[in-house]
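[recover] target loaded
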């Protein structure tokens, strides 16, 4: 059974930082591109960032470019998202996703596996 276990969310003040983790099991981690999405209440899922299979290429949405950093440790089957300079509008449930991207990493349909989500709340 494939599992993506996301963790690291919580309550943080504006300007603060959090690091999310996503531990994968049941799949060949290094054979999957990995991404982070988020979904705020009442909104569609928003693609945030993608890292390729070997970690040599990363891509970011404009909304998080320069503030968030995606990384992976294939030896530990773990994906990370370092989030700095957090804003109230970053409040959402954050999901990790795994798949072999064929066309557009921003599309939800590109991913075969999803984590359960971890809630990030940015508020004073």
């Amino acid at each position: 059974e494939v599992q993506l276990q996301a963790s690291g969310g919580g309550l943080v003040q504006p300007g603060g930082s959090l690091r999310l983790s996503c531990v994968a099991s049941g799949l060949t981690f290094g054979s999957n591109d990995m991404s982070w999405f988020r979904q705020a209440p009442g909104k569609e899922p928003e693609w945030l960032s993608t890292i390729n299979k070997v970690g040599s290429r990363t891509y970011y949405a404009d909304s998080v470019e320069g503030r968030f950093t995606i990384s992976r440790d294939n030896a530990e089957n773990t994906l990370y998202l370092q989030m700095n300079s957090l804003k109230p509008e970053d409040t959402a449930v954050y999901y990790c996703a795994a798949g072999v991207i064929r066309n557009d990493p921003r599309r939800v349909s590109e991913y075969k596996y999803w984590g359960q989500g971890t809630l990030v709340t940015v508020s004073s």
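[recover] notes: DSSP finds no helices and eleven strands in the chain.
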